[in-house]
Structures
1.
Amino acid sequence: MNFEPIIGLEVHIELSTKSKMFCGCPAEHFGVSPNTQVCPVCLGLPGALPAANKLAIENCIRFGLALNCEVSEFSKFDRKHYFYPDLPKSFQISQYDLPFCINGKYESIRIKRVHMEEDTGKLIHTNLNGKKVSLVDFNRSGVPLVELVTEPDFRSVDAVVKFLKEIQLTVRYLGISTADMEKGSMRLEANISLRVKEQESKRVNELPDYKVELKNINSFRYLTKALDAEIKRQAELLEDGKKIKQETRGYDEDRDRTFSQRSKEEAQDYRYFPEPDIPPIRIGELKIKNLKFKFPELPSQKRGKYQKLGLSANYIEVLVQERARADYFETALALAKQYNISEKEIAGVMVNQNLDGKFAEPAGLVKKLVELQNVDYASQADVEEAIKKVVLDNGKAVKDYQAGKEQVLGFLIGMVQKELKGKGKIELIKETLISYIHGR
């Protein structure tokens, strides 16, 4: 049978606030000595009362707005009960039925909710006096954590990875998190099931009666391998006519297979009830407008703007990957107008030569380009002659480029520039080189 995956995501993002979600302890915990940034509140000691972090709530709402969510006028915190060593209170302060943000959409992906909660402690598995032990570091306990939950709208692993990379980029543009997966500030869980592909046209809204949750995913590469392994496992079971158990699974990278961890809980298993120590929160329309007013341009908006400038898709993706670099580019554009320096020229020296790395301020880069305008550039004929020689001498690189390896183009441009002793205009070389290769 031909199966297709049905995938939904839960994305946890630690917010970059100075203090924790419900106390005044520092929120930055990576690389800090264990249990040195704790207090009665984040240790769950009797009588300690939480106080909500206003900035964390605002940043949660900003993230929801970036995903086109509706902001709830009335919201509250809830207690989510479960027993685990890294949860000092034996419950987590989270949100259940009245989250801050609901019903969003990013392109074709529906966003079910964006809510606020506190992070748990961190288990450290080690050897102590010759014995294997698990220790708990509570520095992370109580750190502000936003959870994004999607509907099961993904039908391929590539679509999942593309979406998550855009989420990571978005929170970085908003300045609310580093979303560094290696440091654990962005963590992923995927719910996955399979259905027969022909059902897509017949029963588009009908979902399988089970889902398997993959936990503890800490990189995009790891995610891809884990999803591929689980899709393969489920397909083999379904081919054999077996029923798939609803459960939580981990991924063993060494064996390239998933393994069972525990039966998957339903919401009622957590015994949610309203958090009695934190009052409900009302969010007015004026507050939402103020948060929207402070919005930066998001990656998708910058892409659209740069496309109108005539930049190639490759240039655009390089420029938008860092908000600071995109801002640098736009400042340089504004300064360069009076010198008739084109957008493509500025993008070209940034992407192909990393010239922005040599000048801390855009004004320095523009000054350099003005100086280069006065250089006696090689003629079109000289450029074409140099390109013919480079193409002839670098047949393998040319074939690699024709096969889709676009990064080879920079090497070829560099070789042409070498032939011209640095007197070639980069944009002219690039356009002529591409035209020549495709016309051969």
Note: The chain has a mean pLDDT of 92.
2.
Amino acid sequence: MSEVFFILIAAITIASAIWVVFSSNLIYSAVALLFTLFGVAGLYVFLYADFIAATQVVVYVGGILVLIIFGVMLTNKIADNRISHSSRPRFMAGVISFFIFVLVMTVIFTTTWHTGEEQIATATVNTIGEMILTTYLLPFEVASLVLLAALMGSALLSRKKHG
């Protein structure tokens, strides 16, 4: 039963990612990106990475995607805007992408993968929370200071200059 859910989530993720790339309407592309990001979070759940799945939903769906949708919605005359697909090296990009795809499939099917015994995964949220508040407290606080400095710098750069 879980294999059916995995295939369904993977198919939704791939289909919506293709829709993001090939849609000429920015609104449809942003909505398809919503399904793609939720699908990636679902795939993280199947990997027993529940903390990464929750982070995916909070950061990317809750923050980045909402920012993109606000940017699209607040732009004037966005409903009539279409993205042109007139890039010239499209054929060469397709050929290179196909060769990379063949290379990846060759590696996947010719590698002898280690198959060990099945392990039962436990929740990672408790372990990660404990490590952040004990072992990795200093790097966590340094990262928060770097993000605060980046936020202050972006606020300073976005201000209008007076005089």
Note: The chain has two domains: 1-79, 124-163.
3.
Amino acid sequence: MTEIQVYETATQMKVLFIGGTGNISSASSRLAVEKGMELYVLNRGNSKVTIKGANSIIGDITKLETLTELQGHEWDVVVNWIAFTPEDIERDLELFTGKTKQYIFISSASCYQTPLSYPVITESTPVCNNLWDYSHNKILCEQRLQKAYSEDRFPMTIVRPSLTYDTVIPVAIGGFDKYNIVDRIKKGKEIIIHGDGTSLWTVTHADDFAKGFVGLFGLTQAVGHPFHITSDEVLSWNMIYKILADAIGREANIVHIASDFICKIAPSFTGTLLADKAESVLFDNTKIKTFVSGFKATIPFAEGIKRTLSWLEENPEKQNIDVETEAEMESVLKAYHGLG
């Protein structure tokens, strides 16, 4: 007897997203509905994002007393977009053992070996990152799920996104859910690129990620396996920032500063730099392409970032210029120029 039923059509699947309205997850929510899945989205009801065609369940996954509506459901697929600690996994094991045919944990590609002993990452690359609590906790979550699968056949699948964007700016300093980098480029202010900018990275649009991700739903052979899902486009950080500046219509005023120096002056950048983006990384997507037939990322960064910037222009309330981040960047620049 197989661990998961193999579905003939997506319309047979009943799917729960814990989260589902964020930067990465919204695209997957929309695609799941488009494919005819019966999608339920569990969140606290604070998000202004509405997934047309999805069923809403209001509740807080961290407060079991708010989850009474879940008790009457069984699921074909459960995806937790907002699990970060082993305690979150223990709770989900209690909630969904015997209640779902597949549980998908959203981990992170930052879990992979840091520093890398070999720059091409496959799913067999060791997971070992003690430089960033975020990554270390994700690894502990993975280990707990592997144990649950090995000992109890809990039907888990692990997915490790890398730097994935839709409504955020995918750069190392001054971006993501902050608008600082765009504001500084528009005003001609200095922006920081870590190192000499020649290290390689991959950024992935959430619409591309969704194609591989939703393709794993109900896939019997995916149970027990980890996957990363990224674009195959490889860019240097210099090119990432240049493409961003070109999309803004300005020339970037770039200052290259060593990652070690940046983190010494502004330790808050240690996780995103030394534990993640400071060295070249190349992702081998053979596995997801093998399991999800026809998967291919088709949105180049030059196109995707224009979509993001247009969305931000249409939603000025999302143009968050973070005062603390701005002060940290200025302190790094001041120290670098010998003005401190």
Note: The domain at 168-202+234-281+300-335 is CATH 3.90.25 (UDP-galactose 4-epimerase; domain 1).
4.
Amino acid sequence: MPDARTLIVPSADVERLLPMPACIDLMADALAATVRGDAVQPLRQMLKLPGGRNAFGVMPAVLGGADGSNAIGAKIITVFPGNDATPYDSHIGVVLYFEDTSGRMLAIIDASSVTAIRTAAVSGLATRLLAVAHACDLAIIGAGMQAMTHLEAMLAVRPITRVRSWSRTAARSAAFARRAQQRFGVTVEVCESAESAVRGAQVVCTVTAAREPVLLGEWLSPGVHVNAVGACVPTARELDTRAVVQSRLFVDRRESAMAEAGDVLIPCREGAIDESHVLGELGAVVTGTVRGREHDDDRTLFKSLGLAVEDVAAARFIYERALADGSGTWMTIGGLRPAD
């Protein structure tokens, strides 16, 4: 009897099956495959919902494997930025994973946890490639779910000894500091301003829902590396123009950045930079075809948008590990023709 079952993988299993160090390496492979042409991914489709900033998104991709097979998948999510003030995640949905022989749906995987881990893992990869080797002073702007996973990713790639946090809501930074202490044994300094958090930091992560800049270039020290993660539409940005202009700028995907990244597009519209200011994609730094940091005093900037190939790579990894240890729950959803 052909197998028509689909594996359901909840959040708790994702967090166990996709550890941060492994995910950082996984993202390096996926982004390198993308620049080599071993992936197919259109620009994500985001349907703006009536009455505000909320959206419904579909992100499909096909990612080639070393064995010649293709991983097929899509992330389907709602994006509600205002959920930061509620018990719910801002990104809620599923990652669907299919095989390439019959098109059977192999897995339905929680998207909130996949997004949180793989987004931070890509920032971890960027930090591993672009930050100075001795970077130990970290600032995190924003105190939501991505703050915690970004702290984990930074700890995985650099010898972090100091962590500063700022959020528009001081209570959220304080709660983040308590959770970080409990989870990682790390002391987080809660700062009264974004400037006081950032001054002197060697690595900065912006993980906010801001529409206007929360990070100014005048605060950034020579040698700093910045992961700009939060803003993902052409009209929103976390960094001011000076922060972008003075940095060596890298992106996850050039086409996406030039269509969606306000942190890049707004300085372009101002005439401060043009597309050539984007020095390359992170996958090209992985493969060595684009140079990353050239000098210790370079300011480097990685603008993250998130790619469907990252979700598909994570889904394949999670599915294979779940099969190996019996995680998840099997359901028969359909896909078999009736017997003759």
Note: Residues 5-114+308-332 form a domain with the ornithine cyclodeaminase, domain 1 fold (CATH 3.30.1780.10).
